[in-house]
Design a protein that fits this description.
By secondary structure, the chain is of the alpha+beta class. The chain has helices at 11-20, 28-35, 39-51, 81-93, 118-131, 178-189, 195-202, 206-218, and strands spanning 55-60, 68-76, 97-104, 109-115, 136-143, 146-149, 165-168, 222-228, 240-242, 265-271.
Length: 292
């Protein structure tokens, strides 16, 4: 949110965003037919949404990319605000971090890492402990095995919503070429840019880029598209509830990664890493860049 201002959407813009939020942009004629308005009004609404900061993002299936998706929850011994902020700024910029938040409840912070090896999570935990002034007092770990992005029905209660976007662990892992990575980075780094503009940026023919994107879609690496807008800009408070069952767990063996987790509590403030590729919550001023 910039300068404490909220985004004001007209009735047509809300209806449009609700309908297209979790899909690739339809043509103006299709939008006009769905909303029962003239084509020129549909075109104006689509341009207006882009001008107000709505971003078209690819929904990347990180599991098919061969990545593990895990969260580390922790609390810091230090009470010094400067030391805490220094650690958070480091985590925002670290490669592979997709999501970072402040928590209320059992833990103070949560950080999501997307990486190919379990050892990468050991390394991150070691970095947190080394950079934490006074050390880490509490810590827990959990893998995310499935994720669904649901449409935000508060946009327009009467709208017909697209199905949720989803990804699940356990599916076939696909090898990504450098061309695949380059294409994904460009799509994430340039939201709302046309494929023609992105092809010029990459120095390839438009037909070549179109083929690359279709290949990523056919292989379900790009599992869909979504029109992203931070809830805060719509004057809506966004919460995440993190919980875990209290079933009995074995005592961790010596040298294990983390202690058994407990109830985690509420996520009250989220910030997106500059290097993340996931679609967890974010704030209004964050940047998003793909590094794989």
């Amino acid at each position: 949110m910039q300068n404490g201002s909220y985004m004001k959407l007209s009735t047509v813009e809300r209806e449009l965003l609700a309908r297209i939020e979790l899909q690739a942009p339809p043509s103006a004629a299709e939008v006009a037919s769905q909303l029962k308005v003239h084509t020129h009004r549909a075109q104006y609404a689509m341009r207006s949404l882009r001008g107000k900061g709505v971003e078209l993002r690819p929904f990347v299936d990180v599991f098919r990319c061969g990545l593990l998706d895990g969260a580390i929850f922790f609390s810091l011994a230090s009470k010094a605000p400067r030391a805490r902020e220094s650690l958070l700024q480091y985590l925002e910029k670290r490669k592979g971090i997709a999501w970072l938040c402040s928590l209320s409840g059992e833990f103070q912070y949560g950080v999501v890492l997307q990486a190919p090896q379990l050892t990468d999570f050991h390394e991150l935990l070691g970095e947190i402990e080394a950079r934490a002034d006074g050390g880490v007092t509490e810590k827990a770990f959990a893998f995310r095995m499935a994720y669904r992005q649901f449409p935000r029905k508060f946009l327009s209660p009467a709208a017909r919503f697209a199905p949720a976007l989803r990804m699940e662990a356990g599916k076939e892992r696909l090898a990504l070429s450098e061309i695949d990575r380059e294409t994904l980075r460009a799509l994430v780094d340039h939201p709302n840019a046309s494929l023609r503009d992105i092809s010029k940026e990459l120095g390839v023919a438009l037909s070549t880029l179109q083929y690359r994107v279709k290949s990523l879609e056919d292989r379900k690496i790009i599992a869909g598209w979504w029109h992203f807008i931070p809830a805060a800009l719509l004057d809506v408070q966004s919460y995440k509830v993190l919980c875990i069952s209290r079933r009995r767990r074995p005592t961790p063996s010596k040298g294990s990664l983390l202690s058994p987790p407990r109830t985690l509590g509420w996520s009250i403030a989220c910030r997106r890493s500059a290097t993340g590729i996931s679609s967890w919550g974010s704030n209004a001023n964050s940047r998003r860049r793909l590094q794989m």
